[in-house]
Amino acid sequence: VQLVESGGGLVQAGGSLRVSCAASGRTISGATMAWFRQAPGKEREFVAGITWRGPITNYARSVQGRYTISRDNAKNTVALQMNSLKPEDTAVYYCAADPADLGSNRENAYEFWGQGTQVIVSS
């Protein structure tokens, strides 16, 4: 499956942004979908995930209450709504898919990755 992120950009602190991930080549049905991010000079980290079964959502503590992950299986897309953004949210955001639907927050559970979309939050 190919994953393509979109919707990144520059936003002021306190603002909102929505990033999306479109899948092609294979349906996301049956897969856990997740967002990770990597800030300059830091390791890539889990942000949010949503399973196929349930679905069940899971968030990193740093974004809990500010971010919302959703999926549209009919459109083969996943979105991440980001509110109350902070400068420390600045990063490249990556979409990932786990066909085994493990609901994991670990990178190595995810088989497919997008190329990333840049989000910059100015203070």
Describe this protein's structure.
The strands form 2 sheets. Strands 2, 4, 5, 6, 9, 10 and 11 form a 7-stranded mixed β-sheet that branches. Strands 1-3-8-7 form a 4-stranded antiparallel β-sheet, with no helix packed on it. With 123 residues, the protein is an all-beta fold. The relative contact order is 0.32.
Overall geometry: globular
Mean pLDDT score: 96
Beta fraction = over 45%
**Major sheet size, sense and barrel closure:** 7 strands, mixed
**C-alpha end-to-end distance:** 37 Å
TL;DR?
By secondary structure, the protein is mainly beta.
Describe the secondary-structure layout.
Elements: E1 2-6, E2 9-12, E3 17-24, E4 32-38, E5 45-50, E6 57-59, E7 67-72, E8 77-82, E9 91-98, E10 112-113, E11 117-122
Parallel strand pairs: 2-11
Antiparallel strand pairs: 1-3, 3-8, 4-5, 4-9, 5-6, 7-8, 9-10, 9-11
Question: What characteristics describe this protein?
Answer:
7-stranded mixed β-sheet; single chain; about 50% strand; mainly beta; about 120 residues; 11 strands; 4-stranded antiparallel β-sheet
